[in-house]
């Protein structure tokens, strides 16, 4: 009798699963899901990019997957990406609900907040604040150059030696965000800065790992004491740090004289008043955490990719240095405006971003209404995954799709051009908030350091391995690089 009841119970849930995972009419094709797990077992969770590429070859540029009972549509190639993220932008502008990354931020902030009036207001405020960043006496460019000066000093001590640049660039990127958000920076051996980076590393490692996949696929697991609980504990620590910073700012703030991002937000809260304002301290806490995590990993991993390719392509490095020397002459430091006079350096930086492919699956979207894409019907609430790898390496869009070659961004006259398929920050209204900051950081870091140093691949390092380490953000495998002071000859 008991055996019969168990069989009936299992049969009922299998039938329920099959019913709930039936593809809607004219839904994109895809592999058939299995009970409970959907298509999760058909993907390499350590790095699903190759699997998604193979599925695209079989099912087309737009295909479907299931994560448990949750339907998802994967976009591949420039045409599909443009139609969804630009032409039908609002239809695809939502964020997924009921996933770990959503729960971590409580639905607040900008990065993981759903498409809503609050999201629109906060994105507009953040963009305006970063764009007009004349906070206190320091501009955004000043804050970046200040941190670069500390990095330069550290590298000068390593002249003639080999170093592992990974921690160096992570600390520098985090410090720049600290300066923007909190108005101060930390010495590279400071315990607080090291603690922050450790927490960031633990969160990003877990969010990309198999436990998070299981959390998102099997929602009932969130009630158990499993490893992903540590991620929520770390998030609470970061929220406490942000809350403490906000409290300190409130006690020392001078209205209308902002020193940093927090002061700007507090001023905005004051202008809007209490009551039904969308601006409040709980939103500010999540904003600080989001911007800090996002602005640290993306920049540092892009810089690591840049120096991996520059050390192993000395001809590219030499040509960049020649252009930098010619433009800067005997000036003390570069300005972001100098980029317009450095087409080859611009091409190199964009090619680094293309090859780095830092966020290969972008940030997941969700449809806000029933819509269409490439002739298919996509119901409201469908999870949308952008395979940016398929665009950044699309063979029909690039002269050298699989090779590191700045010529991908140069025309026949040697002028810098940006192909339509260059979208490492995604596209449309939800493209990366920090694009402007990232462009400025990358340019100033690379120009300043290339002007002062030559970077070489160590003779005893063996052959370089360009295979990336997949994660929330992709990073190169750890490597060492030789540092040599350059003998500058200015006219």
TrEMBL record:
Q: Where in the cell is it found?
A: Membrane
Molecular function GO labels: heme binding; iron ion binding; oxidoreductase activity, acting on paired donors, with incorporation or reduction of molecular oxygen, reduced flavin or flavoprotein as one donor, and incorporation of one atom of oxygen
List the InterPro entries hit by this protein, alphabetically.
Answer: Cyt_P450, Cyt_P450_CS, Cyt_P450_E_grp-I, Cyt_P450_sf, Cytochrome_P450_fam2
Keyword list, A-Z: Heme, Iron, Membrane, Metal-binding, Monooxygenase, Oxidoreductase
Q: Which GO terms describe its cellular component?
A: cytoplasm; membrane
Q: Which cofactor does it need?
A: heme
Keyword Membrane belongs to the record: yes
Q: Name one GO biological process term.
A: xenobiotic metabolic process
Q: Where does heme bind?
A: 432
Name the domain of life this protein comes from.
Eukaryota
Question: Pfam family of this protein, just one?
Answer: p450
Q: Which family does it belong to?
A: Belongs to the cytochrome P450 family.
Q: What is this protein called?
A: Cytochrome P450, family 2, subfamily X, polypeptide 7
Q: Which organism is it from?
A: Scleropages formosus (Asian bonytongue)
């Amino acid at each position: 009798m008991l055996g019969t009841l168990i069989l009936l119970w299992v049969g009922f849930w299998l039938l329920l699963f099959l019913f709930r995972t039936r593809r809607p009419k004219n839904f994109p094709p895809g592999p058939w899901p299995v009970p409970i797990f959907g298509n999760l077992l058909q993907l390499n969770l350590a790095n699903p990019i190759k699997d998604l590429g193979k599925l695209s070859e079989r099912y087309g540029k737009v295909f479907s997957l299931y994560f448990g009972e949750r339907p998802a549509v994967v976009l591949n190639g420039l045409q599909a990406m443009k139609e969804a993220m630009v032409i039908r932008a609002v239809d695809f502008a939502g964020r997924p609900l009921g996933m770990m990354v959503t729960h971590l931020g409580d639905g607040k902030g900008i990065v993981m907040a759903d498409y809503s009036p609050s999201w629109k207001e906060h994105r507009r405020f953040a963009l305006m604040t970063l764009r007009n960043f004349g906070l206190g006496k320091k501009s955004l460019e000043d804050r970046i150059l200040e941190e670069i000066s500390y990095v330069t000093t550290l590298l000068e001590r390593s002249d003639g030696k080999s170093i592992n640049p990974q921690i160096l660039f992570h600390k520098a990127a985090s410090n720049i965000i600290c300066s923007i958000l909190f108005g101060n920076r930390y010495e590279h051996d400071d315990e607080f800065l090291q603690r922050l980076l450790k927490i960031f590393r633990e969160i990003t490692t877990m969010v990309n790992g198999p436990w998070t996949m299981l959390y998102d696929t099997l929602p009932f697991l969130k009630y158990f004491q499993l490893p992903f609980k540590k991620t929520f504990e770390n998030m609470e620590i970061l929220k406490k740090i942000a809350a403490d910073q906000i409290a300190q700012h409130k006690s020392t703030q001078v209205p209308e004289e902002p020193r940093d991002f927090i002061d700007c937000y507090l001023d905005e809260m004051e202008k809007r008043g209490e009551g039904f304002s969308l601006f409040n301290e709980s939103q500010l806490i999540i904003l600080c955490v989001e911007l800090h995590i996002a602005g640290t990993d993306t920049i540092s991993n892009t810089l690591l990719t840049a120096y991996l390719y520059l050390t192993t392509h000395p001809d590219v490095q030499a040509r960049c240095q020649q252009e930098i020397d010619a433009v800067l002459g005997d000036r003390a430091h570069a300005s972001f405006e100098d980029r317009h006079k450095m087409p080859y350096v611009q091409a190199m930086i964009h090619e680094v971003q293309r090859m780095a492919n830092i966020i290969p699956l972008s940030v997941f979207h969700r449809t806000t209404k029933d819509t269409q894409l490439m002739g298919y019907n996509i119901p409201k609430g469908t999870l949308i995954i952008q395979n940016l790898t398929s665009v950044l390496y699309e063979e029909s869009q690039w002269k050298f799709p699989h090779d590191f070659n700045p010529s991908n961004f140069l025309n026949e006259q040697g002028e810098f051009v940006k192909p339509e398929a260059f979208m490492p920050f995604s596209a449309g209204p939800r493209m990366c908030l920090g694009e402007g900051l990232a462009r400025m950081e990358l340019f100033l870091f690379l120009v300043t350091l290339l002007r002062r140093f030559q970077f070489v691949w160590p003779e005893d390092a063996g052959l370089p391995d360009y295979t990336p380490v997949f994660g929330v953000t992709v990073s190169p495998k750890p490597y060492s690089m030789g540092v040599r002071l350059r003998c500058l000859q200015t006219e």
